[in-house]
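Handout, page 2. Input:
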Amino acid sequence: MWKSMIQSNLNSFPGWQGHLQLTYRYNRAKTQAIQHQGTAPLKVQRSFYPESEAICHNTILHTAGGIVGGDRLQIDIDLQPESRAVITTAAAGKIYGSNGPPAAQFIVQNVGENACLEWLPQETIVFNQAIFHQHLRVNLAATGSWLGWEINRFGRTARGERFTQGEWKSATEVYREGKPIWIDRQLLVGDKMVDSPHRLAGQSIVGSLAWIGAAVSKDLVIEARSIFDGEPSKIGVTRLTEGLLCRYRGDSTTEVRQWFTAVWHLLRYSFLNSPPIHLRVWQ
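Output:
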């Protein structure tokens, strides 16, 4: 039902109809991308193993350079039991201004038993007048785990641009065996909401990091807060039913990425038995 609804949405608008399918299998102590099919403008670069053969690293590339009104992109990622994957993007995403039709991205991620997906896309720049809707659904098996983040810059601030017109809508839904674990829906309309204390409060960047896999302690929440090297009012850290949620609202992509990376490394030590790793594509 979920995928048929997505396909209906994809077929109802003109523009790019990009689709990427990634399937991972764990066999003989190695995780491999056994299926990686993409249609323009989406493709995946070859797999890397900077940690061990058990953890497959992939980078998704958007060959058109940005998303415009009317584009519909679909990404399906499936991790079979025991597999582990770290997925990022080749560059910052760009959502260009639209003269009418919205752009949309639909992502479905299925994580099998004892599998783990680390979904770490680079930041997205939402241009003024952009209309963009994104829906991410994560389906976890009983023992699957997921870590993901989203970083958005509203307006090309280096050029003095602010997000005064347009609409950004994001929905993230994480389910375990069909039961909702974490549902997060956000909406930003480019008008007075930009300066509202309950929205951007005059800032240009917001970010969310979520870990779903196991309950975290109060001490870990305190540590996640303490490793932020900035104004404490910019961040928030809370416990979820089966994990951790970090929020950022500020003005520095470097600041939020450094904090999210530090929290990611903390969670790796605490739950994934993995040492820190810096992704080569970020350099």
